[in-house]
Amino acid sequence: MHAVQLTALNACDVSSVSKPVPKSGEVLIALKAAALNHRDLWIKKGQYAGIKYPCIPGSDGAGVVVEVADHVDSSWIGKDVIINPAFSWGDKTSAQSDQFTILGLPRFGTLAEFICVPVSQLEVKPPSMTWEEAAALPLAGLTAWRALTTRAQLKVTDKVLISGIGGGVAVFALQFAVAMGASVWVTSSSQAKINQAVKLGAKGGFLYTKKGWAEDAVKELGGFDVIIDSAGGDGLNDLIDAAASGARIAFYGATRGNPTSVTLRKIFWRQLSLLGTTMGSPADWKALIRFVDEKSIKPVVSQVFLLSNALQAFDLMEQGGQFGKIVLKLSE
Known about the structure:
Blueprint: E1 2-8, E2 11-16, E3 26-35, H1 38-44, E4 60-68, E5 80-83, E6 86-87, E7 101-102, E8 114-118, E9 122-124, H2 131-136, H3 138-151, E10 159-162, H4 168-179, E11 183-188, H5 191-199, E12 204-207, H6 213-221, E13 224-229, H7 235-242, E14 243-251, H8 264-269, E15 273-276, H9 282-294, E16 301-306, H10 310-319, E17 325-329
Parallel strand pairs: 10-11, 10-13, 11-12, 13-14, 14-15, 16-17
Antiparallel strand pairs: 1-2, 3-4, 3-8, 3-17, 4-5, 5-9, 6-7
Helix pairs in contact: 3-4, 6-7
């Protein structure tokens, strides 16, 4: 089969590799589509812990079950499925276990024509989605769902701010919050991306490159009840300034690193909650699939590439030019 294979730091190519064989409790899936995440880019650039070569990255995928191993019901054969990329979450819903891993490292991932995974990781593909849309959902959708619901406890009356709109998780958070009936605003360095967010249901947005944007937002709207962020850095203080009293700020990343300082008195005096969140539990996953099926959520696909053009897809992600998910089409 063909797959995106990393053999060393930044040494990435589409290669011919051995087709995997399912072990007991696993299925073999002929993947129809897979999607990129920033995690894949960081793995390619050697910025992720525990990298071992060779490596097939990729956490998102959807396809058809073509073979089952021992202890798997044969009725799975022929089913259209989507893969939960969160492995070994553990028994606690509050946080993942020490054994938790994400598909694509250390286990070979979805940027390939075939993959083997435990049957417990599968869910039937929502019939309303195309293969490309289904492949776009798992990691980013699960992360956005847990951040909004399990961690931030979103309510229909909340005013929500999604920072850095354009990336997969941020776009899903926007779609989910709008579908739940909340009022949503976004931030971006691009007015064009804010305009795209408005087309998806956002009430408006703010350019975070503009000095004093948080103060302007508070004057206009009175502050936000829920804020979803992946950047961190000194921008955290702007988010604190933009928060209403009693607000919940959920972080699923820190692409800008740690803030140089934080004004703690604003946090305790205004009763703010700072919430860390990563991926999601099996319960989060099942709730996500039910929700997107019931609400007919259509994941936003920014661009589709053939597997043979995978390196161009990585380049687009590195440039940050996408709005939504970058998808690889693996077969018809």
